[in-house]
Amino acid sequence: MTLFPEWQAFDIAQDLLDKTGKGYSENRFDLYERCFVLPHEFETFQETRRISDVNELRKLFDNVRNFFSMHGITELHRRVVAAKYLSEDTIRATHESRLIGLGSQLHAPYPAMVTLKRFGFDWKIAKSAYAFANNPAQQQAIGVGTIVKRQE
Predict the structure, then answer these.
(1) How many CB atoms within 10 Å of residue 137?
(2) Is 128 within 8 Å of 113 (Cβ atoms)?
(3) Would strands 104-105 and 90-101 be described as parallel, antiparallel, or unpaired?
(4) Nearby residues of 146 by Cβ (< 8 Å), 6 or more positions away
(5) The whole model's pTM is what?
(6) d(Cα 115, Cα 111) in Å, to the nearest integer?
(7) By CB neighbour count within 10 A (0-12 exposed, 13-18 middle, 19+ buried), where does 143 fall?
(8) Is residue 5 reached through a cis peptide bond, with omega within 30 degrees of 0 on the bond before it?
(9) Residue 10 and residue 103: Cα distance in Å, rounded?
(10) Where would I find the H helices in the chain?
(11) Which residues have CB under 8 Å from 19's CB, separation 6+?
């Protein structure tokens, strides 16, 4: 099996981060939605959740935008740290997120890891894991979908 160069995996992952970030900043759910595979599972230190349909994804999107607004977050800076092809149709990538308000970092940066899957010519986020600090408001914002597993 011939895999593509690692820099290409990095660029694909960053492109999806940029698109979802633009979706948040411009209130463009249509752009955001196109970046995800449904059902979509995401994990935090507290639990694993499954977003089963577009209505749940929309609720997640709206909740996160409301969290940003209520906490004075005006920018979401995310940068890919590493990305690697696992197969021709799967990439695993890690990135760091920083929440910015009035030019200052408002929360500690946190790492995340995503699994990306290719469907035809399109890459989408299939699975996510977020390692943000114990922040009840942030946890509540992403409290959408079905709890698949509570972490011990």
Answers:
(1) 9
(2) yes
(3) antiparallel
(4) 49, 50, 52
(5) 0.89
(6) 14
(7) middle
(8) no
(9) 27
(10) 6-25, 29-33, 54-70, 136-141
(11) 31, 32, 34, 35
Label residue 134 exposed, middle or buried (CB < 10 Å: 0-12, 13-18, 19+): exposed
Query: What are the residues whose beta carbons fall under 8 Å from the beta carbon of 139, sequence distance 6 or more?
Result: 44, 46
pLDDT for 3? 67
Q: How far apart are CA 77 and CA 17, in angstroms?
A: 9
**Token digits for 22?**
């633009």
Domains and CATH numbers, the chain: 6-150 (3.10.450.50)
What pLDDT is recorded for position 14?
98
Which two structure tokens, joined as six digits, stand for 82?
A: 């590493």
Task: State how far the Cα of 18 lies from the Cα of 37, in Å rounded to an integer.
Answer: 17
Q: Which DSSP helix (H) or strand (E) runs through 100? A: strand 90-101
* pLDDT single digits (tens) 67-108: 999 888 888 899 999 999 999 999 999 999 988 888 787 777
End-to-end CA, the chain:
39
**H-helix or E-strand spanning residue 49:** strand 47-51
Cβ contact 13:116 at 8 Å: yes
Average pLDDT over residues 36-65: 94
